[in-house]
Design a protein that fits this description.
With 257 residues, the protein is mainly alpha-helical. The protein folds into 3 domains: 4-92, Four Helix Bundle (Hemerythrin (Met), subunit A) (Up-down Bundle); 96-173, Winged helix-like DNA-binding domain superfamily/Winged helix DNA-binding domain (Arc Repressor Mutant, subunit A); 176-257, Orthogonal Bundle (Arc Repressor Mutant, subunit A). The chain is 65% helix and 2% strand. The protein has 12 helices and 2 strands. It has helices spanning 4-27, 29-37, 46-63, 72-92, 99-119, 125-132, 136-147, 178-193, 198-207, 218-225, 229-243, 246-249; strands at residues 155-156, 162-163.
């Protein structure tokens, strides 16, 4: 049992902690609004996006550990986005698609737009599969789902005790709180890679395992591009020199120690 004096101090610390928590939430409400604006027009009212974002912000305040060395706003951004995208996945579609698959479909369309700008035409599913290191059949399925969503919660099996979504591997499933930092680093890397040519960016993704976790050899990458291993080495070196430019490398300093 604690003494009366110790109990008083404990209550005071708890009150101070609550005040600090409330201050942190109020100080970052603009961050919630700015992130929520990016998801407007996707089937969920803006006020609901704000509400979901605030729930994510509160979760970030609860989980944040200043000893990890990254900024609170950086950490909170991941939680706010996760809360909002989950709300969109749950409410914004008449048929629900799991969040990890929605993220992958969004990335697929992003790469498709980038290639269309470079090539002046829409890429084929096979070309998209090559750039994402996926099977063409899976890319065609993702394109079909994005146009005509199917229920991944539909019961399957004779006893209907499983759902279709259970059989889709969640390769990107985060494990908070470390995943928040890792996810933001991935996004920042993608931002930096987008400043390179599509070929340079893809070569770096393949060489450093940034697409599916597997690092490809110079020879393997060369076969994908129809180039010699020496030419791939030259392009890789050229791309890395670009990334060392202060304007690009500065973007990663908050994430790398």
């Amino acid at each position: 049992q604690c003494s009366e004096d110790e109990a008083f101090k404990l209550k005071r610390f708890m009150r101070e902690g609550d005040r600090a928590r409330d201050h942190l939430i109020k100080a970052n409400t603009r961050l919630v609004v700015s992130i929520a604006k990016k998801y407007m027009g996707q089937g969920v009212p803006f006020s609901d996006l704000i509400q979901e974002g605030n729930l994510g912000l509160m979760k970030a305040v609860e989980k944040f550990d200043y000893r990890r060395g990254y900024k609170f706003s950086t950490y909170a951004t991941w939680w706010i986005r996760q809360a909002i995208t989950r709300a969109l996945a749950d409410q914004g579609r008449t048929i629900r698609v799991p969040v990890h698959m929605s993220d992958r479909i969004r990335k697929l369309h992003q790469i498709s737009r980038q290639l269309e700008q470079v090539w002046g035409r829409k890429p084929t599913p096979e070309e998209l599969a090559e750039h994402m290191d996926l099977e063409p059949a899976k890319v065609r399925w993702m394109l079909r789902v994005s146009r005509h969503p199917v229920s991944l919660e539909r019961p399957v099996g004779e006893e209907e005790d499983s759902e279709l979504g259970n059989f889709i591997e969640d390769e990107d499933a985060p494990t908070p709180p470390d995943a928040a930092y890792h996810r933001l680093l991935q996004e920042k890397l993608e931002d930096v890679l987008s400043t390179l040519t599509p070929r340079e960016a893809r070569i770096l993704r393949l060489r450093f395992g940034l697409q599916n976790g597997r690092s490809y050899t110079l020879e393997e990458v060369g076969k994908k591009f129809g180039l010699t291993r020496e030419r791939i080495r030259q392009i890789e070196g050229q791309a890395l020199r670009k990334l060392r430019h202060p304007r690009r490398s500065r973007q990663l300093r908050d994430y790398l120690s």
